[in-house]
Specification:
There is one protein chain. The protein is an alpha/beta fold. It is about 50% helix and about 15% strand. It is built from nine helices and ten strands. A five-stranded parallel sheet has the order 2-8-1-9-10. The longest helix is centred in the last third of the chain and has 17 residues. The termini are close together. Bound molecules: cytidine-5'-diphosphate.
């Protein structure tokens, strides 16, 4: 059967990655986390002290871009210059700076090219902010996930706490609010619901329920 491209966009902690992974598993497709790529580039900038509390050496990061390789290993875990960084990219420090980097067209161009390359043959489920609108505007199946700001903050707080990160619920809420604002108002590829996307609300829906709805839509598209 023909392998299609499935996109899932939405704000932080709307449940995109959970749904994307489950769809990919169900369909035998590859899951690609585009946010992890922006996070990996941000980690590189933090490690080299190109971005911090009150500074951003954008020019230096641009200069080094051709030497930065961001990829996925066979387990779909993200690598930065060949090293696994799956855990480190999920930190609050990375979350604090990622939207500043992601709003710059030059960094987007660099990562979007890689994302298109990864999705070239179809059979992928990719999640992010601009996947259905910019990266794969011709994708056969597009979803857009929503949930309230409060629910999203609680989810992300629990995730971080379970990973052992010492962070307050307030700091998580503020980080999500700040990223929502930057991600949805930036000039290049803002977070929008693609016109042809199916909206799913994960507020009170179980993971199984969302998966079933998504699979029904996909099956309809495939036949
Ligand atoms: O996991 P969470 O939803 O918090 O975020 P993510 O998907 O890991 O994305 C982290 C950040 O990367 C977002 O806040 C955006 O600034 C940026 N991003 C983007 O600009 N475009 C994408 N396709 C994916 C992520």
């Amino acid at each position: 059967m023909k392998k299609i491209t499935i996109t899932i966009d939405g704000a932080s902690s709307t449940g995109k990655s959970t749904l994307a992974k489950r769809i990919a598993h169900h369909m035998g497709y590859t899951y690609i986390d585009s946010g992890a790529m922006y996070r990996a580039l941000t980690l590189y900038a933090i490690r080299n002290q190109y971005i911090g509390e009150d500074y951003f050496n954008k020019e230096q990061l641009i200069k080094e871009l051709p030497g930065i390789s961001i990829d996925f290993d066979p387990n779909d875990s993200i690598t930065l210059n060949g090293m696994l960084v799956e855990d480190e990219i999920r930190s609050m420090e990375v979350a604090d700076h990622v939207s500043t980097i992601a709003k710059e067209p030059i960094f987007r161009k660099f990562l979007v090219a890689k994302q298109r390359e990864l999705g070239l043959e179809g059979g992928v489920v990719m999640d992010g902010r601009d996947i259905g609108s910019v990266v794969f505007p011709d994708a056969e199946m597009k979803f857009y996930l929503v949930a309230s700001a409060e629910t999203r903050a609680v989810r992300r707080f629990r995730e971080l706490r379970d990973k052992g990160e010492r962070v307050s619920p307030k700091a998580v809420f503020q980080n999500l609010a700040k990223r929502d604002a930057i991600d949805s108002t930036r000039k290049d590829s803002p977070l929008i619901k693609p016109v042809d996307a199916i909206e799913l609300n994960s507020e009170n829906a179980s993971e199984d329920h969302l998966l079933n709805i998504a699979i029904d839509h996909i099956q309809t598209r495939l036949h």
